[in-house]
Amino acid sequence: xxxxxxxxxxxxxxxxxxxxxxxxxxxxxxxxxxxxxxxxxxxxxxxxxxxxxxxxxxxxxxxxxxxxxxxxxxxxxxxxxxxxxxxxxxxxxxxxxxxxxxxxxxxxxxxxxxxxxxxxxxxxxxxxxxxxxxxxxxxxxxxxxxxxxxxxxxxxxxxxxxxxxxxxxxxxxxxxxxxxxxxxxxxxxxxxxxxxxxxxxxxxxxxxxxxxxxxxxxxxxxxxxxxxxxxxxxxxxxxxxxxxxxxxxxxxxxxxxxxxxxxxxxxxxxxxxxxxxxxxxxxxxxxxxxxxxxxxxxxxxxxxxxxxxxxxxxxxxxxxxxxxxxxxxxxxxxxxxxxxxxxxxxxxxxxxxxxxxxxxxxxxxxxxxxxxxxxxxxxxxxxxxxxxxxxxxxxxxxxxxxxxxxxxxxxxxxxxxxxxxxxxxxxxxxxxxxxxxxx
Length: 439
Prior knowledge:
The chain has 439 residues and is of the alpha/beta class. The protein contains 18 helices and 18 strands.
């Protein structure tokens, strides 16, 4: 199983099951891609020589490598995943009203906003320690709504976790996701001291950002409000371990301009994600938008190359030698098994995008996992249980895609989002092109 494509006159071939990447000349590429007219275009001697070289690659296990599905399936069946990461919903409330927010009017479907107490936060830390078996490195993501609305509890949880990590032989790594409106120098100093990573929400150009990310205070620009704060925070972190994270919709299909705008502002770690929304939403991405989106990803990749890689784009970051382990490549993010979300009330969900949907409630911090139906399904969710993934060249890089997106669009966590898959495949091609350009 191979995948052949061209970008900017570069020939690229990926051998799916070995992970080998080849940059063949035109003749070898035409043979591997099955191009018509090859026999008329080249001499018999040249074709024979190229086929000989291809045969050597096949013999060495670098082309047309056979699938290891049987071994991989057995490996996953024997695996006993443990919880290693929690997403704490510190606040089901927000001081923005983003048009595309999945949190059901910022309160996840609740009648009124709610906030996690310090006691519930401590209980979550205890739950993670008790559920993580022998794993040393544990992760806690402070999420919302907007977590800085409940920042004293954030600090209290960090203090509690730090006070007991040596006792239990654990090492906690914290992440915080924020819209930035409540940031000040004191909070920035604390975040840069305690948070291993920070996700900063900003969509790009001012008019694009402000059209979707509405301040609750009428007339205020969220772009103008947060930009100087994000600059202060990221400069203090020396542009390491953060992401400016944006969302693009059908209102800005020219999103490469938003990425480059953020890069021109001096931000170096960037991620702009496609919105996931029902087809009826006025800002949703539909199949007819795919050609423009794919062209935009390619435009962005070429711009990165031209600029000398002066910023990182999350979806183009690819490490072929020290990337995710085999289990991660096959199973993905671990939602529902290794990763859980905790609501302010202490209820457990497979991930933050399922919070508020009672059918997906797995249990609580008090009682543990009581709804095993969904957890068993998430445990079986991998590239070998999804027929659409079996013949996809990107399967070991996307790991079957996002289960939440699959369910919200197809009502089935095993049926990947087709539009999302098409975008993922194009992003992978761009990432491979940039690796080829660097080499």
